[in-house]
């Protein structure tokens, strides 16, 4: 397969998927989720592959969806519909993306996210769908749009952190570095960026020699425990709410501010700690 948004290679029983849009911090473009799924399925079908590593080209892992373009764009966009909106359209598109990212979770072989720079918003979704997360000490991860205009649709924060810390991360949208991610159990390990490849290779080296059937059985045992807890239904609810977040009164206000003063200023107002969307309760119903 010819990929437009990523690179795929296999060496010594390891398949490496490199998100390859470095000029935009590997922002998630149309087609990228499907290409991730296709690459994962190629690795899964390859009898010589035992481990899958996901990484980003350039300065970071993945900056998420291009929210600046979606928020500032006039008229309907990939992030917003004209009102009244059809929630089923949002759900259909985002559910497909969520399931594409979750191919990393479903893959019969272990998947490792190698994170440097930033894995934010949708980029954190990709990283957290992997079995293992190894970060540079100064890398950042979080979901800032959870403050306004988004809900992480894979909802893996819940299953990795438990209720209290998941609420802490999702309600604030804060970013944390690799060291803190290890402290709270989000990441397996962190290392100085110069040593990140060696850190990933240490885990890969322990996994590549394990028979594929043994890896598959062990992963299935762990995954089914979370699936039995209702993972799929959690993701359905999160995907519905992601669309709601972009079309709520506050979500509409955020987009209007982005169009009026630019995305950067709208984010600064969102994160200021002040009450946002002044007068939004007085907005007439549409």
In brief:
The chain has 13 helices and nine strands. With 286 residues, it is an alpha/beta fold. Strand 2, helix 1 and strand 3 form a beta-alpha-beta unit.
What does this structure look like?
- This protein has helices spanning 32-45, 67-72, 87-101, 103-106, 122-128, 156-161, 163-172, 178-183, 196-207, 212-228, 231-247, 249-261, 263-270, and strands at residues 6-11, 14-19, 51-56, 111-115, 118-120, 132-136, 140-142, 176-177, 189-191.
- Helices cover 47% and strands 14% of the residues.
- The strands form two sheets. It has a six-stranded mixed beta sheet, with helices on both faces.
- Helix 1 packs parallel to helix 3, helix 3 crosses helix 11 and helix 12 crosses helix 13 (263-270).
- It is an alpha/beta fold and 286 residues long.
Distance from first to last alpha carbon: 46 Å
What proportion strand?
Answer: 5-15%
**Residue windows where pLDDT falls under 50 for at least 5 positions:** 281-286
Tally of DSSP β-strands: 9
Order of helices and strands: EEHEHHHEEHEEHHEHEHHHHH
What is the SS-derived class? Answer: alpha/beta
Strand order of the largest sheet: 1-2-3-4-6-9
Overall pLDDT score:
93
Shape: globular
* Oligomeric state, counting identical vs distinct chains: single chain
- The residue fraction in helices comes out at 40-55%
What is the gyration radius calculated from CA atoms? 19 Å
What summary fits the major beta sheet? 6 strands, mixed
Number of helices: 13
């Amino acid at each position: 397969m010819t990929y437009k948004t990523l690179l795929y290679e296999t060496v010594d029983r390891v398949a490496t998927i490199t998100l390859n849009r470095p000029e935009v911090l590997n922002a998630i473009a149309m087609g990228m989720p499907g290409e991730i799924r296709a690459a994962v399925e190629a690795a899964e079908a390859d009898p010589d592959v035992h481990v899958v590593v996901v990484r980003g080209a350039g300065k970071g892992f993945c900056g998420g969806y291009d929210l600046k373009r979606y928020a500032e764009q006039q008229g309907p966009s990939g992030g917003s519909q004209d009102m009244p909106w059809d929630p089923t359209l949002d759900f259909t598109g985002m559910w497909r993306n969520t399931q594409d990212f979750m191919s990393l979770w479903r893959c019969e072989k272990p998947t490792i996210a190698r994170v440097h720079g930033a894995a934010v918003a949708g980029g954190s979704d990709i990283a957290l769908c992997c079995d293992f997360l190894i970060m540079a000490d100064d890398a950042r991860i979080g979901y800032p749009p959870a403050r306004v205009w988004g809900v992480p649709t894979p909802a893996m924060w819940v299953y990795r952190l438990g209720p209290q810390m998941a609420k802490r991360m999702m309600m604030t949208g804060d970013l944390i570095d690799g060291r803190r991610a290890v402290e709270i159990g989000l990441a397996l390990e962190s290392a100085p960026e110069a040593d990140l490849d060696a850190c990933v290779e240490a885990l890969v080296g322990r996994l590549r020699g394990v028979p594929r059937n043994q890896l598959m059985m062990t992963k299935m045992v762990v995954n089914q425990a979370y699936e039995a807890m209702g993972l799929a239904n959690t993701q359905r609810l999160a995907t519905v709410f992601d669309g709601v977040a972009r079309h709520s009164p506050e979500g509409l206000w955020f987009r209007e501010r982005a169009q009026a003063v630019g995305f950067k200023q709208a984010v600064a107002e969102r994160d200021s700690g002040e009450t946002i969307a002044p007068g939004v309760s007085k907005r007439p119903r549409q």
